[in-house]
């Protein structure tokens, strides 16, 4: 009924995008344990798809197409994983911040070696980014590496 009132008063369509994002955010009222499990599941699927895509890069003829498909699916699943931790609205807002502009605009050349290097760097950067949403996770990883390197 509210929708009909908005249409008749000429206010329809002004807040549709905001309402969709708010509805998605409200629908994601999950417990912390469920959020972490969703993050781990999506992140694992993303890594598997991305690694599979990188492996397909060197296949003759269809390798580049398979790389694009699997790597894109992997990135989509990985980005979805962080939405479990903080919600879709906050995630989209943080992705558009000026400090993340360079990371959002990385371009891959038609050089397999460079593509592999950038894929590895992207995996590492995303893992560090994802850990930033889990309290004390970065500190634990840094401590683990400092113990291993001694």
Count of beta strands:
0
Name the shape in a single word: globular
Largest beta sheet, briefly?
none
Give the percentage of residues in beta strands: under 5%
Taking pLDDT < 50 over at least 5 consecutive residues as the criterion, the unreliable ranges are: none
Rg estimate, integer Å: 20 Å
Mean pLDDT across the residues is 77
The structure class reads: mainly alpha
- The arrangement of helices and strands along the chain is HHHHHHHH
Task: Work out the helicity level.
Answer: over 70%
End-to-end separation: 67 Å
- The number of helical segments is 8
What does this structure look like?
With 150 residues, the protein is an all-alpha fold. 76% of the residues lie in helices and 0% in strands. It has 8 helices and no strands. The protein has helices at 2-9, 16-27, 32-56, 63-86, 88-95, 101-104, 112-131, 137-149. Helix 3 (32-56) packs antiparallel against helix 4 (63-86). It is globular and about 45 Å long.
């Amino acid at each position: 009924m509210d929708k009909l009132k908005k249409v008749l008063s000429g206010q329809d369509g002004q807040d549709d995008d905001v309402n969709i994002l708010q509805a998605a955010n409200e629908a994601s009222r999950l417990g912390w344990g469920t959020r972490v499990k969703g993050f781990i599941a999506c992140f694992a699927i993303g890594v598997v798809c991305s690694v599979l895509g990188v492996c397909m890069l060197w296949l003759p003829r269809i390798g580049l197409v398979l790389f694009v498909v699997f790597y894109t699916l992997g990135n989509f699943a990985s980005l979805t994983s962080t939405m479990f931790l903080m919600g879709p609205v906050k995630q989209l807002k943080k992705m558009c911040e000026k400090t993340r502009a360079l990371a959002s605009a990385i371009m891959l050349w038609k050089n397999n070696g460079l593509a592999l290097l950038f894929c590895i760097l992207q995996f590492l950067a995303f893992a560090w980014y994802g850990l930033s949403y889990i309290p004390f996770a970065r500190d634990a990883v840094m401590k683990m590496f400092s113990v291993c390197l001694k």
